[in-house]
Amino acid sequence: MQKPAVRDAIVAQIKRELDLQTRAAHDAREEATSEENKSEGKYDMRGQEAAYLAEGQARLAVELAESLALYHMLELADLPPGSVASVGALITLEARGRQTCYFLGPRNGGLEARIGNETFTVVTPTSPLGRQLIGQSTGASVQLPGRGAPILHRIVEIR
User: Fold this and answer.
1) How far apart, in whole angstroms, are the C-alpha atoms of residue 15 and residue 64?
2) What is the pLDDT of residues 106-136, one digit of tens each?
3) Sheet holding 118-123, edge to edge
4) Total-model pTM
5) Is 123 helix (H, G, I), strand (E, B) or coil?
């Protein structure tokens, strides 16, 4: 998996979400200003509720636009062997014979994307896993929650 393809997959997914939120904010704003939602009494809050919804969706759209800018500016140099995990690193963890791939990104933790047959998850430095990964090198171990007890994962690759 190449880092530019990883960034492209993240950006494409954020763009889809931004488009969705922008349309939703526009629709909610239209609803808030619609004549049909004009208050019919002091307890009628339909217009106000729609306005709150529009404001929240507009804020989320702004955050997504900021995320796009961050990912476009993110440097994606390949890390030489022995490097430590930092923002922009693609990290492979292994536990119980199964490997999982994570991208240490500046925002949008939890976003999952696929490139071909490979799937990766974005983690941020402020997430529990991200805090464990920052500064670690190949061979180090991190713990992830499991059924019952945490599961030890070994870092097998940082690039």
Assistant:
1) 8
2) 999 999 999 999 999 999 999 999 999 999 9
3) 112-115, 118-123, 98-104, 90-95, 151-158, 141-144
4) 0.83
5) strand
Alpha-carbon distance of 127 to 37, in angstroms, equals 41
CA distances from residue 37 to 28, 30, 48, 78 in whole angstroms, order as listed:
11, 10, 9, 55
Domain of residue 106 covers: 90-158
CATH number for the domain harbouring residue 120: 3.10.50.30
- Say whether both 94 and 131 belong to one domain: yes
**Which one-letter DSSP state was computed for residue 117?**
T
- Here the contacts of 20-23 (C-beta below 8 Å, separation 24 or greater) are 21/57, 21/60, 21/61, 21/64, 22/61
Cα-to-chain-centroid distance, residue 149? 26
Beta bridge partners of 3: none
